[in-house]
Write a structure and sequence with these properties.
Aminopeptidase; about 20% strand; 7 helices; three-stranded antiparallel beta sheet; about 30% helix; alpha+beta; Alpha-Beta Plaits; five-stranded mixed beta sheet; about 260 residues
């Protein structure tokens, strides 16, 4: 391939659209939506894709959006995927484009992921430097864990309706130098499972703990004990993370509750 060929995207191909990409990302950041609630985000994505000439299918597996673009007579197809949902976190950054939705924030970077795929969508539609079919998959509810938007889209026939020979995706990595990609052969990112553990004890007055079975103490001990799974049950040459994300129990300081609950 000659040095003057522009078959592949270059950084300079996006320089004229940088301001628009920044505007897009900040708009999405200011208007976050949680898993299975991405109504406005999905509509925003679909409208942009339609404006660039994509064949757009909405409501795939709920709120998923797929944009399809064909070029030439090539029989091969690829897919590129990004996620759209935010997290239930109150933003306290003070940024001018901070979240306008109370208790919701794009703290995992999905606003950036969606913006990147929209940037790729505009570039592909503008240059059409490919021969075949490109499917752009905008997934809802990545943060949902089990029963996520990916599973819902697949159950709705995603790969039967939009077949592809390969699918590509990425995730931002805070701390990595700008302009770099982190890659490795084999699995790169961990799968996630969620478990809810309910501890049932015997409630009573806080002044008489000997007459109770305190689920708060049990839950606290369990939080610490769970951390030994990695250090004592996982092969040291392998990686694993056990995180207790929530712990709930009791409604008053002078009452030992009947139960407590933790989620892992």
């Amino acid at each position: 391939m000659s040095q003057t060929s522009n078959q592949f995207a270059r950084i300079e191909d996006f320089e004229d659209g940088t301001a628009k990409l920044v505007e897009t990302r900040r708009h999405l950041h200011a208007h976050p939506e949680l898993s299975f609630e991405e109504v406005e985000t999905a509509a925003y994505v679909a409208e942009r894709l339609q404006g660039w000439g994509y064949e757009v299918t909405r409501n795939v597996g709920g709120l998923g959006v797929v944009g399809r673009l064909k070029q030439g007579e090539g029989g091969r197809s690829i897919a590129i995927r990004a996620d759209m949902d935010a997290l239930p976190i109150q933003e306290a950054t003070g940024l001018p484009y901070a979240s306008k939705a109370k208790g919701k924030m794009h703290a995992c970077g999905h606003d950036g992921h969606t913006t990147m795929l929209l940037g790729a969508a505009e570039y592909l539609a503008r240059t059409r430097h490919f021969n075949g079919t490109v499917n752009l998959i905008f997934q809802p509810a990545e943060e949902a864990g089990r029963g996520s938007g990916a599973q819902a889209m697949i159950a709705d026939g995603l790969f039967e309706r939009f077949p592809c020979d390969a699918i590509f995706g990425l995730h931002n990595h805070p701390g990595a130098p700008a302009g770099t990609f982190l890659m490795r052969p084999g699995p790169l990112m961990a799968a996630a499972d969620t478990a809810t553990i309910t501890i049932t004890g015997r409630g009573g007055h806080a002044s008489r703990p000997h007459l109770t079975v305190d689920p708060i103490v049990v839950a606290a001990n369990m939080v610490m004990t769970l951390q030994t799974i990695v250090s004592r049950n996982v092969n040291p040459t392998e990686t694993a993370v056990v995180t207790v994300g929530t712990i709930h129990g009791g409604t008053a300081s002078n009452v030992i509750p009947e139960s407590a609950e933790i989620t892992v």
